[in-house]
Design goal:
It is a single chain. It is built from 6 helices and 10 strands. The protein is an alpha/beta fold and 234 residues long. The strands form 3 sheets. Strands 4-1-5-9-6-10 form a 6-stranded mixed β-sheet, sandwiched between helices. Strands 2-3 form a two-stranded antiparallel ribbon. A two-stranded antiparallel ribbon has the order 7-8. Strand 7 and strand 8 form a beta hairpin. The longest helix is centred in the middle third of the chain and has 16 residues. The radius of gyration is 19 Å and the shape is globular.
Length: 234
């Protein structure tokens, strides 16, 4: 039996707004993107790993870290409204057209999640490949505050976002909730193309610890990632 081809896709665009130029900012002495390139290069589950970016400096820092950069992402797929789906399909189509290289599984690895490591990627891919009925595995982490106790404002008054949550006093009586941590989206390419989402019908979780689940969007996120990296065992 032929082993499936698993493509790791490190995604990083130049026009970040919450924290400008975040993908090349120094984190623990290295550009942010280098952490994800390292994890992808070390992941044994990936047949190949490439970097997709529209930005020359990001691509240069990725190459310095050992990353493969076969193309420059077109500007149309690097806008504020461009989706990760479009970025993934562009990479798959580019490899098919220019190299006749077809992937069976795509693993999207946003560069903004520097605490995700190679063993996390390997475990998520293994979970996907171990179950033929699964179409995707997405990394999640348990939320630190129940969404059922969140509020909104309606006509100047607080209102429960989920009315049933207001009737529960004990946290342990609420369902456990998870959020995607933005670090790993492993999906079978056929399901990605057919359903056009990283959450196809048969999607399973890969649960990661909160300490490993920092997704950098703001300066505060960046400082938190720095702190977590500094606390890692050597």
């Amino acid at each position: 039996m032929t082993s499936p081809r698993v493509l790791g896709l490190v995604a990083a665009r130049g026009g970040s707004k919450g924290l400008p130029r975040k993908n090349v900012l120094p984190l623990g002495g290295r550009p942010l993107i280098a952490w994800t390139v390292d994890a992808a290069q070390a992941a044994r589950a990936l047949t190949r790993a490439i970097v997709s970016s529209d930005d020359a400096e990001i691509l240069a820092r990725a190459r310095e870290a050992g990353g493969e950069t076969p193309f420059v992402r077109p500007a149309a797929f690097a806008t504020d409204t461009a989706s990760s789906l479009e970025v993934a399909l562009h990479a798959l189509d580019w490899l098919a057209e220019h190299e006749r290289w077809q992937a069976d599984v795509l693993v999207l690895l946003p560069a903004t999640a520097p605490l995700r490591r190679a063993h996390h990627i390997d475990a998520a891919v293994a979970a996907l490949l171990a179950d033929a009925g699964l179409e995707a595995v997405v990394a999640v982490t348990e939320v630190d505050y129940p969404p059922y106790w969140m509020l909104t404002v309606e006509n100047g008054r607080l209102a429960w976002l989920f009315p049933e949550g207001g009737r529960v006093d004990r946290r342990q009586d609420l369902p456990t909730a998870f959020r995607p941590n933005g670090s790993i989206y492993a999906v079978r390419v056929a399901a990605l193309r057919e359903q056009r989402t990283f959450y196809p019908r048969a999607t399973a979780p890969y649960v990661m610890a909160r300490e490993e689940s920092v997704n950098i969007d703001t300066a505060l996120d960046f400082r938190l990632a720095e702190m977590r990296l500094a606390q890692r065992p050597g």
